[in-house]
Amino acid sequence: MTEPSGRRERKKAATRQKIADTALRLFLERGYDAVGIRDVAAEADVAVTTVFSHFASKEALVFEQDEDFEQRLTRAVTGRAPHEPLIPALRHEIQALVRHCTADSAAPIWHMIDASPTLREYEESMRLRHAESLATALAADPHLPQTTTACRTIARFVIDAYSLAREAADPEAAVDEIFRMIEAAWEVTCPSAASEARSS
User: Which of 37, 72, 178, 183 is buried most deeply by CB count within 10 Å?
Assistant: First the structure.
């Protein structure tokens, strides 16, 4: 008897979450460099191959919501209602991400990341990938007739807004300040869209 796909997907998601939670707990208890994939697999009671079927690398275990964040940002572009302004939609997602990453429970994780050159390098490459995905979504929107350079620039600004706000003393105020600048840049590159946003 085959297992229903819905149940199979739920079990797969639960296993993935269990591995990620176990890894993070071990990293915080023992230190990131002191824990190997075999340690995570043993503690989570799964095979090493199971860990790698869910996570491409040890670094990916720390950033287990990476794909979700990336999808949320691209959906802010692709999932907008007709005539819904772009920049406020992106700002809403960045604010949510910043709140998530500046919660008290996230502080030990970011201390660990900041202390590890390997994790900092991985986070930087992750941000660049998010920016490229966002730029691709912007370029594909027929209502946003922009050059590739303009799309990539705005996407970088948006991704950098998240990083800068996370490190600011007042993250919410930083998001507001940064997005005022992004809005101004958007008006310069896409005046027709900015005009529609003001009139809507």
Answer: 178
